[in-house]
Design goal:
The protein contains eleven helices and 22 strands. It has helices at 12-23, 38-42, 45-62, 78-103, 176-187, 207-220, 280-292, 336-340, 367-379, 384-388, 399-406, and strands at 3-8, 28-31, 106-108, 112-116, 119-122, 125-134, 138-140, 153-154, 168-172, 191-195, 223-225, 230-234, 237-240, 245-246, 250-253, 257-259, 268-269, 303-305, 310-315, 326-331, 347-353, 356-364. Bound molecules: flavin-adenine dinucleotide.
């Protein structure tokens, strides 16, 4: 055998598995047909968060005078925004490449295919391996009648290559990707319309989270059509099932992702390839579970949607519970810090039973950070009474957790 492990795919699942296995002394070959870091690094998590940060800076500049700051530079150059995103991605990717190399992983930059459970072929060379790990990721899902053409109908990959912003965009789907792009476009003044097949925006979230986001969108002038979808497109005029006609400059289809999974018995499949929860942290923890034997609580995999305000949740939602659970909701306006930051829209909602927390749903600045305190309590079954003994700093968003649990009767 040439190597003990042959890993196909250098995204979060593949590189996490590769680094851990190599550090344990195993010989590892990793095949990557594109760039190390996968979707997450090159066309997913990192580039969108860089765009979101630029959008946030731009939005804040527009409110600067309210805070006593004179800001004369209220314009932006989208090409430079995109350039900053590229630089950020490149910097992080370079660090990752070094980590993978230093761990002792042999990386082959080529498309690989599986011949049998012990043979991988790349660039006409056969690699004999004891175990194959497929971590090939996923690709943007195409919908009938909305096939990507890279110009009018864009995928989440295509949208990263925009050189200039459109005047208007129709976003199909209001999951995390659709929501983050709606926020980026809207912050830069693009007219945004969303169509969502489900009854509410962000259908996987707690219903009250969805409804609050709908309210925030109305305030921001982001249009949305629920229980609706694209029926047909004629001469760039989009007709929705409801009869509404829209003429967007571009369409972004953000309707989920299709797993890429090689068909072969007796191999291990990790990350998006599995078609389970398609998130980078899920891929990373799956790879850690496989390589280090550290299990993780899959039912408590956190969901985060970035932008202003952040949305974060884990555990049971309103739609999942009966009357035996208690619900409490703390408005973010209760927190002094939110007034200082002009970020008062949102809430911390907890679902509890018998002194334990079963669900946490937050809309707030720093929601992603807040959620982890609650996750720890949920995962480790720390009672609400015990959590109350913790001293939360003031003024923070975190003290909202304390305020919220103090409201539980
Ligand atoms: C716009 C967007 C934003 C996102 N934001 C977030 C976020 O904020 N947080 C979050 O947790 N998740 C986010 N995700 C999801 C996240 O990117 C994925 O869940 C994560 O990248 C999955 O990791 P993976 O290793 O399974 O697959 P991938 O990251 O997709 O990596 C798979 C790799 O395999 C390579 N590959 C495939 N086939 C072959 C082959 N035959 N030979 C060689 N190489 C091959 C691909 O080139 C790719 O590099 C986002 C996704 C998108 C699209």
């Amino acid at each position: 055998m040439d190597f003990e492990y042959g890993i196909i795919g250098g995204g979060p699942a593949g590189y996490t598995a590769g680094i851990n296995l190599a550090k344990q002394g195993h010989s590892v070959v990793l095949f990557e047909k594109n760039k190390l870091g996968g979707t997450c690094m090159n066309s997913g998590c990192i580039p969108t968060k860089s765009f979101l940060h630029s959008a946030e800076i731009f939005s804040n500049l527009q409110k600067a005078e309210e805070y006593g700051i004179k800001a004369d530079f209220t314009d932006f150059n989208f090409a430079l925004v995109a350039e900053k995103k590229d630089k950020t991605v490149e910097k992080i990717r370079k660090a990752l490449e070094l980590t993978v190399k230093n761990a002792g992983v042999k990386t082959i930059y080529a498309e690989a295919c599986i011949k049998d459970k012990n043979t991988v072929i790349a660039e006409n060379t056969e690699y004999k391996v004891q175990h194959i790990i497929a971590a090939c990721g996923s690709k943007p899902k195409e919908l009938k009648g909305l096939e990507f053409d890279g110009e009018f109908i864009l995928s989440s990959d295509d949208v990263l290559n925009l050189k200039k912003l459109p005047e208007s965009v129709l976003i199909v789907g209001s999951g995390a990707i659709g929501t983050e792009w709606a926020r980026i476009f809207s912050a830069f003044g693009v007219e945004v319309t969303i169509t969502e097949l489900a009854e509410h925006l962000i259908p996987t979230a707690d219903i009250e989270v969805s409804k609050r986001i709908e309210r925030i969108y109305k305030q921001k002038g982001i249009k949305f059509y629920l229980n609706d979808c694209v029926e047909k497109i004629e001469n760039k005029t989009v007709k929705l099932k409801s009869g509404t006609e829209i003429t967007p400059e571009i369409i972004l289809v953000a309707a989920g992702r299709t797993p890429i999974c090689p068909v072969c018995n007796d191999i291990t499949v990790l990350g998006d390839s599995c078609g389970e929860i398609q998130l980078a942290h899920y891929a990373i923890h799956q790879a850690k579970e496989y390589t280090l034997g550290i299990p993780f609580e899959k039912k408590l995999t956190p969901s985060v949607i970035y932008g202003e305000p952040e949305i974060a949740w884990a555990g049971l939602r309103e739609q999942d519970i009966d009357e035996s659970y208690t619900k409490i909701m703390l408005p973010i306006t209760a927190l002094g810090k939110s007034w200082c930051d002009d970020a008062t829209d949102g809430f911390i909602k907890l679902i509890t039973k018998n002194d334990l927390i079963y669900g946490a749903h937050i809309i707030s600045k720093e929601a992603s950070a807040l959620l982890h305190t609650l996750l720890l309590a949920m995962q480790q079954k720390i009672t609400v009474d015990k959590l109350k003994e913790m001293c939360f700093a003031h003024p923070t968003y975190s003290e909202g957790i304390f305020e919220a649990i103090c409201r539980i009767k």
